[in-house]
Design goal:
mainly beta; globular; five-stranded antiparallel sheet
Length: 180
């Protein structure tokens, strides 16, 4: 009984969060999301280190199912909601990462929850707190993207400051990170 009730509550919360993201994404756009240029992605560093990449650098993940390229095109921040219906940041500011995900081979998935902000002190924050900011164009969560598919959007975090890094999690492991 407890398991069934817990599952029902989690399902309702997930649906409500998706509906709010859609509503926020469909209202006016006062923040423009930059899309990556049609230039080839910046290759990973020669030493193979995928940590502390710069905006514009591309993280390439090769998996059995396919190859996906993730590029953080830019970072910005806001100390107040970006739209009139947005919520004030509880931690002091929003860090907004504009992201492009491109599938170059096979299939892949994208989800804003694959990203996390790691503060300088090691504190980790998910994009859930920034979902109600009204900032940027929400990054869509999509399964089974096929080769040639590209998705752009913003991942927003409610944080104390911009000292930290944006990490991308692939199969619950950090695959790479970008510094603002």
């Amino acid at each position: 009984m407890v398991v069934a009730v817990t599952a029902a509550v989690l399902t309702l919360l997930t649906c409500a969060g998706g509906i709010v993201a859609v509503v926020i994404g469909t209202k006016g756009t006062s923040t423009t999301v930059s899309e990556a240029q049609a230039t080839p992605p910046t290759p990973p560093p020669a030493n193979g280190d995928t940590r502390d990449l710069s905006p514009g650098d591309t993280l390439i993940i090769n998996r059995e199912a396919g190859t996906v390229e993730i590029t953080v095109t830019k970072f910005s921040s806001a100390t107040k909601p970006c739209k009139s219906h947005g919520l004030k940041p509880g931690e002091g500011m929003y860090v907004i990462a504009d992201v492009t995900v491109a599938v170059t081979k096979g299939t892949a998935s994208t989800n804003p929850l694959y990203f996390q902000w790691v503060a300088a002190d090691g504190t980790k924050t998910t994009a859930i707190g920034g979902a109600f900011s009204g900032c940027g164009k929400p990054m869509p969560a999509v399964d089974d993207l096929t080769a040639g598919t590209r998705r752009t959007g913003s991942v927003v975090f409610d944080v104390h400051d911009t000292s930290g890094a944006l990490e991308y999690q692939d199969q619950f492991q950090t695959a790479g990170s970008w510094k603002p």
